[in-house]
Amino acid sequence: MTTDEKQKCKYCESEMKKWQPPESSTWTNEYLWVCFNDECPYYVRGWDHMMKTQEVKASYRNTVNPETGCNSPLPTWSNDAHRDMVIED
Which tens digit of pLDDT belongs to each residue from 30-75? Predict the structure, then answer.
């Protein structure tokens, strides 16, 4: 499943943005779809979950792999983290 079609977050229905993984990452994709909605329930509840289970101030954003359609978390440490790697259309 390869899709360039814009994706919507399964948790909040916001339009996701294309995001370029860092060169040093293990992702082989040219890009991933990422939800940058700071009010997304997945992102919001992630802060409490990570503090309770890992004792770290972090959360995660929903991602979709455009090659497989699979969702996965993108760890984040602030509202602004990763925004510099958004690919503008």
Answer: 999 999 999 999 999 999 999 999 999 999 999 999 999 999 999 9
Can you state the percent helix, strand and coil of the chain, rounding each to 5?
A: 20, 25, 55
Residue 73's SS3 state is strand
pLDDT score of 5: 82
SS3 56: coil
To the question of pTM greater than 0.85 for the whole model, the response is: yes
Report d(CA 33, CA 29) in Å as an integer. Answer: 10
Domain boundaries in the chain? 17-85
The answer to whether 71 and 64 have CB atoms below 8 angstroms apart is yes
Across the beta sheet with 71-76, what order do the strands follow?
A: 17-19, 32-34, 59-64, 71-76
